């Protein structure tokens, strides 16, 4: 009561008193680096605003019909290419994993057939170790950005965070071979996340017209000169990744929409749909090709696709409680999973910081530990006699099947080995399959669940490409099946369906998607009649899990330090104005500026945008003309269109430039100010910035509330937001807001008062609730 | 060549010359009325901006945890209620239609069994006429806004267009009973579109807390005080509508996302998913209830759901050409359909303008015409002998079935009557069904296709609730089946699947959605293996059709005159500045304003937002303080918090107001200035506007390009955008931009030069292409 009345009193005061005293530091101290993959990198923002300068307008106006047609045609051709390439990579990936892992399991199983268990373990663990070592060495030395699933990195990129190397050719290459060898090495990791990253890399490289570094560029591809078009392509690429990984074209589109993209348009929906349709059709054709057995051990296993069609799934009211129970368990386990993964990642970060060799050592220890578990645990399970009416050979001969012999006598099988001593895909298939209700023992399923749960947490953070989807599905399916076995004959659903629902609940609890997960699971299992149950399970598990913590990818992004701009504002931002946050000192240019000044400013600051003002004699009082980008200034300095006196240049100056000079360079490919040589004489000359200045920058008045400025910044995807003064007597610009100025850490750092003041009372529940709903 | 060089020359000039001479009219002459349903209404804009005034901030700060929890809880409870109510209405709708139409067909068929053809025709046509008459009278007299499908109206509402009565209780009521009787009267119209409108009405009424007009309000429901929250609810409602109409929960979410919503957030995706999940679960429970035959003639027919599962659909490369052909035909027919429908609607508008009786007469003539066609055409078809191995009774006895006897002898059936003398749902089911490859003759299918195509065009515009989805599906299915028959045994697909693909292609060609249609069709037909083919067909048909004209709903919106703000800007907007478009004269208020002035301005203008400026003695030079809304001014005048001298009021003034005073009223429910009585004495008093003024309005500088200002306006969902001057010597505000200022017609009206100048060259292809891609 008393706190309330005190709060009430301060609230009343706050209307007349200024909200904050002006003790604010001047430099933005927010960290502008993040962990990309496994390495710490400096990061920049992307710029989705169109720099509408005279040159751009001129270029835009002179575009004829043919160029516009060419642009549209290129857009769609690139989408087609993305679809084809990503589906080929996805297919190759699958064939390689199935064959490498398959041969390993066949050799080991054969040795065990002759009771050479020691030798079998040696072969199994050494081959796993070698594969992991290879993957980790390649990742650590060649492209650290390829470590992990890549989904957080791509998600941050699509939010406007530019980190060098995130989508480079090197990353693509390492991601493909690293993912193949890591997944084949029986680590408890998936290949769907890396596929998303691969799709994004392919899209980005095509959009940039190849990799400049490796001189693999195609001029006809260099059509997309801005971050906007590239963002759209990368969104399509990530949709293609999921579509190729799960053969789920609609699910892929929805995944890109729900989880990955920060900006979305209806037109993009259509293009993403086109890309995933291409993926679906190419994959289908390739699988037809493999049906005849030309793809080695691939074909029986095949792409992830778990046909559980029981033509008439019937369920009744009696099944609802157990389905709800599954949802609740999924929510609790999912949030626990996220919490533990977050902790482990923080610990791993400490280890990874120590150096490359620590990273590789960590990866190898996890591999050895995994091998021991996978080989050791099945010994705990008792052998089961083969069922008389088994629809397939028992015990299984060769590669995939439900009945692994392992250490058992002929005519018996080891049910735990069927799950654990197998590829993840086969384990899922076994768990999902129907008419196998008596195949597994309680203890085996329970051991399998615990192993999966913890192994996948400890395996994610090592320095290899590693996805989360498949481990989460396996873990969810195992406890789903366990619940199914507990419910037993009370239920009209078979255990395979419980496994599917369990997988859905754990996915919902840890990844917190709804529509996309629902469609992905439907497409994976090819049974539409399950729809209402899957929706129910997802809703329950997401609701329960959201009460505890956030989406797993958001947590990972936070651990990695990406300045991700959320949609919603923190409540205290509504009480702050833009003026409370904007920092100086500000570097300005005049419309007609001395070359020496420009060079000096570019050399001494790292800013990427500078306000341009007009002063006397062009205007009576200083007036804001616009905003010029560093990249454009460097281009101007390179071309040296200087004049010895401060006079405007004519339109003919445009002839010295082509549109591609002002196009956005690929990440890290821009010229640096240090590379440009300018003579002493030129330093004294003048440059007319007007035609190259974006004369329509977005502006906010300094008294605007921070929350509303943030909405503007976020919705329009800006990199720079100019702050203009309320009263006109001062300089025409107060400052520039960038992404880092909107980060809660920065704002709370500027105004430490906010931390322990009455705002806190509001901050926690509100931000929590608004994040969730 | 010569034109090119001339253009080049003018382009060069344009850099130095001002783009436009300042011959511009002062008033915004754009029509601010639109056809809503069947009547012409004045329209307003909705306001998605938060009016951040001191009062709001105070209210926001004093909200405790409980209130926030209450808010979130209400949000989800309303979603739950929307789901339950919409599914109940949808179910009731279906039962009513199936029973009314069913009884009609049973009686008619029985009469024909005894060769009383004349009597049968009389009963058939009179019952149709009575039903149509009832529907049209109810619609025309009670709620003209309920005419048509309602999708264009809801789409416009979700874009920020507020028309009175669009989502009122009266509209809801008429839409339900009108749709039932119109669909039962064998008109060639659907019930899916009306269901979307019904869902939107339910959501809006719940969001507003009931209908004030009919005193049906619940205080505990009045929680959502702004257009933003209501928009979200209406989006969920429209998703629920499609989900209930087609039993397609995921399709419903995607439809709302792809076609209806102009703004979308990930959180909304989840809520829409929740709503449609509720719909799916309730519908399933209700259908279970009906399975035992308690629902009259409903149950055998049931909700639209066409199970065409042939467990193993196989298709090969040889099927691709015919599928592509279907896509191309669908695209051409779809755009032709849109074109003709557009024409017919324009003609109908002329008739409808003449008065209510013309409208009803038109509806009745269409009904009689339809009855004649439906009864007359089957006589053209020759009777077919019943197949020996028919899986059901032949000829059909009673209500639904594949083999209608019509005029044939016993042991024979009339294949055209099975299609045409039937409800649309049954016709679709017959067309989609497999193992019926020899049932239909070429001529029957062709006659049916032509009849459907034209009847549906002529039936849409009459003054009854009428959807487009089902007629489009029937028409598409009929030519799909025709193509299937032509291809014949060359193909491995059966004719039923061709009908499905034909329906997909025609939907794609006329509605131009992709992902949502794809999912809706999958959910309708319950066969996931068709996915790649459906994707292919949709892509081809949409691409082909987009080359000719736009989406059917966009065309209808244009005919109706809704000021829909598209995502993309017209190219010439990039060459104009905000200053070229903004119109005056502008009404300003001072921070401390005389009551008399306020009343006078409110009485003499219809503006909804006014800039508030601070002048001496509060500030040295005039300074923009913010923007105040008309509704808030009226509220202030009502409470009469005046002071006799111009002094700021203290914080205690807030105690006289509650947050709900400043909440957005339901459409048409706001107080009018004429209703407020103010004495002469009070007219001389002062009002402090500061605490009630939105101190953080969005602003643009007058030199900003119109295209970029438009992006800001559109993306943030604004109603008012303040334009501030570049040079500070003048008034601190130049003007206000509203939705109508961004309409191409308005801009071209202001600057007729743009019409016939070089811009035209660019305007057509660019706008066309950017709309499409």
TrEMBL record, chains A, B:
InterPro entries named among the record's database cross-references: CBS_dom, CBS_dom_sf, Cl-channel/antiporter, Cl-channel_core, Cl_channel_pln, ClC
Alphabetical list of Pfam families matching this protein: CBS, Voltage_CLC
Location of the CBS domain: 692-753
Origin superkingdom: Eukaryota
Membrane spanning stretches: 73-97, 117-143, 233-257, 263-283, 295-318, 324-345, 357-381, 445-475, 496-522, 528-548
Presence of keyword Disulfide bond: no
Subcellular location: Membrane
Membrane topology: Multi-pass membrane protein
Keywords: CBS domain, Chloride, Chloride channel, Ion channel, Ion transport, Membrane, Repeat, Transmembrane, Transmembrane helix, Transport, Voltage-gated channel
PANTHER family for this protein: CHLORIDE CHANNEL PROTEIN CLC FAMILY MEMBER, CHLORIDE CHANNEL-LIKE PROTEIN CLC-G-RELATED
Family: Belongs to the chloride channel (TC 2.A.49) family.
Name listed for the protein in its UniProt record: Chloride channel protein
Lineage of source species: Eukaryota, Viridiplantae, Streptophyta, Embryophyta, Tracheophyta
């Amino acid at each position: 009561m008393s706190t309330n009345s005190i709060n009430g009193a301060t609230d009343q005061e706050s209307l007349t008193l200024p909200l904050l005293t002006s003790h604010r530091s001047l430099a933005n101290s927010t960290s502008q680096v993040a962990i990309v993959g496994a390495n710490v990198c400096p990061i920049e923002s992307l710029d989705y605003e169109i720099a509408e300068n005279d040159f751009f307008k001129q270029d835009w106006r002179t575009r004829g019909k043919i160029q516009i047609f060419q642009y549209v045609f290129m857009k769609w051709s690139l989408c087609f290419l993305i679809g084809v390439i990503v589906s080929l990579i996805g297919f190759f990936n699958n064939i390689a994993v199935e064959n490498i892992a398959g041969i390993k399991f066949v050799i080991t199983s054969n040795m065990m057939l002759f009771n050479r268990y020691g030798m079998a373990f040696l072969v199994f663990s050494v081959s796993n170790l070698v594969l992991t070592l290879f993957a980790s060495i390649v990742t650590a030395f060649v492209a650290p950005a390829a470590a992990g699933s890549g989904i957080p990195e791509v998600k941050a990129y699509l939010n406007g965070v530019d980190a060098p190397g995130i989508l480079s050719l090197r990353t693509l290459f390492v991601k493909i071979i690293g993912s193949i060898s890591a997944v084949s090495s029986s680590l408890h990791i998936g290949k769907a996340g890396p596929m998303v990253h691969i799709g994004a890399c392919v899209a980005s490289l095509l959009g940039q017209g190849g990799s400049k570094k490796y001189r693999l560029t195609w001029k006809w591809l260099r059509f997309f000169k801005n971050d906007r078009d590239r963002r759209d392509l990368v969104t399509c690429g990530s949709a293609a990744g999921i579509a190729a990984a799960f053969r789920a074209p609609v699910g892929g589109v929805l995944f890109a929409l729900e989880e990955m993209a920060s900006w979305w348009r209806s037109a993009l929906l259509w293009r993403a749909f086109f890309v995933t349709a291409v993926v679906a059709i190419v994959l289908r054709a390739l699988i037809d090709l493999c049906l005849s057995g030309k793809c080695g051990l691939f074909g029986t296993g095949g792409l992830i696709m778990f046909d559980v069609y029981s033509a008439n799934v019937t369920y009744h009211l009696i099944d609802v409680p157990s389905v709800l129970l599954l949802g609740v368990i999924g929510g609790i386990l999912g949030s626990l999973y996220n919490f533990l993964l977050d902790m482990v990642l923080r610990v791993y970060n400490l280890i990874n910081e120590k150096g490359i060799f620590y990273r590789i050592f960590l990866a190898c220890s996890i591999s050895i530990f995994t091998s021991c578990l996978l080989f050791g645990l099945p010994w705990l399970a008792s052998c089961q006699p083969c069922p008389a009416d088994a629809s397939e050979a028992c015990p299984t001969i060769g590669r995939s099947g439900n009945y692994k012999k392992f250490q058992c006598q002929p005519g018996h099988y080891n049910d735990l080995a069927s799950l654990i001593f197998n590829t993840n895909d086969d384990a899922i298939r076994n768990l999902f399959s129907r008419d196998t209700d008596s195949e597994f023992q309680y203890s085996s399923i329970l051991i399998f669940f615990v192993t999966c749960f913890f192994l996948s947490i400890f395996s994610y953070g090592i320095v290899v490409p590693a996805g989360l989807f498949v481990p989460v599905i396996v873990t969810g399916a195992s406890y789903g099946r366990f619940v199914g076995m507990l419910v037993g004959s009370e239920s009209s659903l078979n255990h395979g369906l419980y496994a599917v629902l369990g997988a859905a609940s754990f996915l919902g609890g840890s990844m917190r998607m709804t529509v996309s997960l629902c469609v992905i699971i439907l497409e994976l299992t090819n049974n539409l009649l399950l729809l209402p149950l899957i929706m129910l399970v997802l809703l329950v598990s997401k609701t329960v899990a959201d009460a505890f913590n956030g989406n797993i990818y958001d947590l990972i992004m936070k651990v990695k330090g990406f300045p991700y701009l959320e949609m919603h504002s923190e409540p205290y931002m509504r009480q702050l104005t833009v003026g409370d946050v904007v920092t100086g000192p500000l570097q300005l240019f005049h419309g007609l500026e001395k070359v020496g000044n420009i060079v000096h400013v570019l050399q001494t600051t790292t800013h990427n945008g500078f306000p341009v003002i007009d002063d006397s004699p062009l205007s009576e009082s200083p007036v804001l003309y616009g905003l010029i980008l560093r990249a454009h200034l460097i281009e101007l300095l390179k071309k040296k269109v200087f004049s010895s006196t401060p006079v405007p240049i004519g339109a003919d100056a445009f002839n010295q430039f082509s549109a591609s000079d002002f196009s956005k360079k690929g990440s890290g490919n821009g010229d640096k100010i240090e590379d440009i040589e300018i003579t002493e004489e030129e330093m004294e000359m003048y440059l007319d910035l007007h035609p190259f200045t974006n004369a329509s920058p977005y502006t906010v008045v300094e008294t605007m509330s921070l929350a509303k400025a943030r909405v503007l910044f976020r919705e329009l995807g800006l990199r720079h937001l100019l702050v203009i003064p309320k009263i006109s007597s001062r300089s025409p610009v107060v400052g520039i807001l960038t992404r880092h100025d909107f980060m809660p850490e920065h704002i709370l750092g500027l105004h430490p008062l906010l931390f322990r003041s009455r705002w806190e009372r509001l901050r926690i529940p509100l931000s929590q609730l608004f994040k969730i709903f």
